[in-house]
């Protein structure tokens, strides 16, 4: 009788572990957006997920060792940079795959700025600005030679140095990466810059 009770307890405990693993996977898959929470929860979350840094984009909530960014633009850039190296996936918005407008859409949405999901619609938001007036956090829009000659690519400015602009974006060949606007391909395809924040 003791053996049967012991076996039942083991079976129940193993099945409990199995279900908790499933719930962790659900947390890390498609719902990776982390919203603002109280300071107590942020510290607890950073400790809880410290071993899973690759699965959750970095934000103030789960980066205790990094200095918290001072502006919304810096926070959005930090969030976007956590997707570096993620493969390209048309329509993608997660670490499993990301497209250019998905990267921008999710990065801004993580900080309560809702944009349209498609780059050509994003280009209708905010204020059009000249390249000499851009700041970190502004958006660059491109026409990369598609048949309709419309805006079909977007990038987020992450740095301005040596009279050049660095932006993060998702390319079909290399996934999420940073590029410089003065690269021939991007300079020829550039269409406009816009300020959302």
UniProtKB/TrEMBL annotation:
InterPro entries reported in the protein's UniProt record: NLP_P60_dom, Papain-like_cys_pep_sf, Peptidase_C40
Keywords from the UniProt entry: Hydrolase, Protease, Thiol protease
UniProt-listed Gene3D superfamilies: endopeptidase domain like (from Nostoc punctiforme) (3.90.1720.10)
Domain NlpC/P60: 70-197
PROSITE patterns for the chain: NLPC_P60, PROKAR_LIPOPROTEIN
Family, as annotated: Belongs to the peptidase C40 family.
Matches recorded under PANTHER family: MUREIN DD-ENDOPEPTIDASE MEPH-RELATED
Protein name: C40 family peptidase
Native source species: Algibacter miyuki
């Amino acid at each position: 009788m003791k053996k049967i009770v012991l076996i039942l307890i083991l079976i129940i405990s193993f099945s409990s572990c199995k279900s908790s693993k499933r719930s962790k996977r659900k947390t890390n898959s498609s719902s990776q957006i982390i919203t603002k929470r109280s300071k107590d929860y942020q510290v607890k979350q950073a400790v809880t997920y410290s071993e899973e840094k690759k699965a959750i984009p970095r934000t103030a909530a789960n980066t205790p060792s990094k200095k918290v960014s001072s502006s919304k633009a810096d926070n959005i850039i930090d969030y976007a940079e956590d997707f570096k190296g993620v493969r390209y996936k048309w329509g993608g918005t997660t670490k499993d795959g990301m497209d250019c407008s998905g990267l921008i859409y999710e990065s801004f949405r993580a900080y309560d700025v809702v944009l349209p999901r498609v780059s050509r619609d994003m280009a209708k938001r905010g204020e059009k600005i000249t390249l000499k007036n851009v700041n970190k956090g502004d958006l660059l829009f491109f026409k990369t030679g598609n048949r309709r000659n419309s805006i079909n690519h977007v990038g987020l400015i992450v740095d301005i140095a040596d009279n050049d602009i660095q932006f993060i974006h998702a390319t079909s060949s290399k996934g999420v990466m940073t590029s410089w606007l003065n690269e021939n391909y991007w300079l020829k395809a550039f269409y406009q810059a816009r300020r959302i924040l």
